[in-house]
Each structure stands twice: as C-alpha cells, then as structure tokens.
Amino acid sequence: MANKQVSREFLFRRLHSLLGVIPVTLFLFIHLGINSFATKGEQAFNDKVGILETIPFLPFIEFVFIFLPLIYHGVYGMYVAYTSGYNANKYSWGRNLMFTLQRTSGVFTFIFVIWHLWTTRFSGDAPSFDMVVQIVTSPVGFWFMIIGTVAAVFHLANGLWGFFIHWGITVGPRAQRVSAYVLMGLFVVLSAVGTSALIAFRDAVA
C-alpha cells in the first residue's frame, strides 16, 4: 500500500512538472508575444488577437491543451506548496530562498491567472486593446498585472531550472550553473517584454 502511494505521488508530481513546462510555457510565450504588439499600437495588437481568434476549434483547443493543464498544475501546485517542508537545515540559504520563492510565486501566479482569465477571456467580450487598457488605467490593476506577470515569468524560469534537473537534462553542477544563468536571462527578457507591453497599454490613455 505504501509503495502504491509513493508511486502515485511520484506520478502526480511528474505530471505536474510536465504540464508546467509544455502547455503552460507555450501559453505564456504566446501570451507575452501577442501582448508585446501593444508597443506598436492598438491596431497591431488587435490584428494579432484577431488572427488568434480565427484558429479552428479554438475553445476546444484552449480548454483541453491550456485550461485543463493550468488547472491541474495550479491546484496540485497549491497542494505541494501547502505540504512541502522548507528544509532550512538541509540546503544552502540560496537554495532555500529559491525554493520558497518558487512556491510563493506559484500561489500568486495561480491567483493572478484566474483573475486575469476571468476579467478578459471569460468576461463575455472579445479580447481587445481597449479591454486591457480599462484594466491598467487603475493603479491597482496596473501594479497587480505587473507583479503577476513578473511572478509568472519567475515561476516559469525557476521551474524550468528544477525541471531540467529532475528529468536528468542538467546532471552535473556545471550544467546546472550554466542553465541557471541562461534561465535568469530568460526571466529578465520576458519580464521586460511583459512590463513594456503593460506600460504601453497604460500610456495609451495618457
């Protein structure tokens, strides 16, 4: 019975890890990529959103390949954050800090994504430039979007670092150190892309 429970827990964690990398990473890259066109103006952004909306069976694709993986990754991630110990005496201060930030950023990101989808995709209106502008005109909405975006990107970058280790991609200390530098660069670049897009939305009403 104990072995079955361990095997089931291992499977759930592996699935959580895999779904956090493949569909969720793709979703974040596409989302930030489309948002980046806000820096080119309203028409450029709306044109890209319009192209996305013409994908056949889009609601089905979003539900099966994006929303379901997001829900599983988020809900199971909340469970992991609640049940995981913080190993203060086992690892270095830096490792424990990143471990803690990964858990806290995951919880915040999950709340942020639910709010963001509710106020945009499930609002009853088609996504548009003006829709986002209405959100970020409020200082609370703007900073919540900024913090949520940075938290999501950090959770992705730091999660990829752990994913590469757990799946045997970066085995030795040197490979893990190099991947840490590369993924830190990815975090900086994607954070800059997301932040500049939100500033462009906000400045559209200035």
From TrEMBL:
Organism in which the protein naturally occurs: Tumebacillus avium
Regions that span the bilayer: 12-34, 54-76, 97-118, 142-169, 181-201
Entry's Gene Ontology cellular component terms: membrane
GO molecular function ontology, one term from the record: metal ion binding
Protein name per its UniProtKB record: Succinate dehydrogenase
Record localization: Membrane
SUPFAM superfamilies from the UniProt entry: Fumarate reductase respiratory complex transmembrane subunits
Residues annotated for heme binding in this entry: 31, 73, 116, 155
A Pfam family of this chain: Sdh_cyt
Alphabetically ordered keywords of this record: Heme, Iron, Membrane, Metal-binding, Transmembrane, Transmembrane helix
Biological classification of the source: Bacteria, Bacillati, Bacillota, Bacilli, Bacillales
